[in-house]
Amino acid sequence: MTESILFKGRPDDFAERLPKEQRCYELLDELGIEYWHVNHEHADTIEACHEIEKALGASICKNLFLTNRQQTDFYLLLMPGDKPFKTKLLSKQIGSARLSFGSAEHMEKHLDITPGSVSVLGLINDKEHAVRLLVDADLLKDDFIGCHPCINTSTLKFKLSDMTGKLLPALEHDMTVVELPWEVD
Fold first, then answer.
1. Is the Cβ–Cβ distance between 76 and 136 less than 8 Å?
2. Which residues pair with 131 in a beta bridge?
3. What's CA 75's distance to the chain center, in Å?
4. CB atoms closer than 10 angstroms to residue 172
5. How far, in Å, CA of 60 to CA of 48, rounded?
6. Among the listed residues 66, 47, 58, the one whose alpha carbon sits nearest the alpha carbon of residue 118
């Protein structure tokens, strides 16, 4: 992977970006949220994101798109990137039996995102509020959040307080704080 460089604000080649990525930058600008971005090769795993984290000066959170067995309830879970995840521990907290990973089709339908690009910014596209946002309490201890702008060839960094205080209210999405353990059996 080539060296990643941190830039402030929207990319210079904004007009050449995909519309779903452009919507992310436009909303952040409209809300007065200060942000930085790094352009890079496809980064669709936490392991691929470690080099990008160095350039960002912030951790990239793990973003999981989940659904119940009936595929009627959908969840976006944000948690520290290196924290292990067990669905049964989360299922119990949110009162949903048998969580599993949501399909690429549902991800595209509700968030206009493809696997590997899942991000809180995908909620921009959730006009029907079909996806419930879950945030691990440990993630809320950070000052910044690192996430993709609906595409996994760029990563953004902005203040977590801007996510909770500006972005989520603008998107009319609430978040449910969950507590997942660092050690799982």
1. no
2. 74
3. 12
4. 10
5. 10
6. 66
Q: Average pLDDT in the 93-118 region? A: 92
pLDDT (0 to 100) of residue 172:
95
- Report H helices in 57-166: 87-94, 104-111, 160-162
Amino acid found at 129: H
Instruction: State the average pLDDT over residues 92-100.
Output: 89
Name the pLDDT band for 185 (thresholds 50, 70, 90). Answer: low
At 131, the amino acid letter reads V
| Interior angle at CA 83, CA 81 and CA 85, nearest 5 | 110
Mean pLDDT of 74-78: 97
In the predicted structure, residue 161 carries a pLDDT above the cut 80: yes
Residues 6 or more apart in contact with residue 7 via CB below 8 angstroms: 36, 37, 38, 39
More confident residue, 71 or 53: 71
3 state DSSP class of 81: coil
What backbone torsions phi and psi does residue 159 show, to the nearest 5 degrees? Answer: -65, 135
Q: What is the DSSP letter of 18?
A: -
Distance CA 137, CA 134 (A): 9
The predicted model gives 121-145 an average pLDDT of: 95
CB atoms within 10 A of CB 87: 15
pLDDT at 1 over 60: no
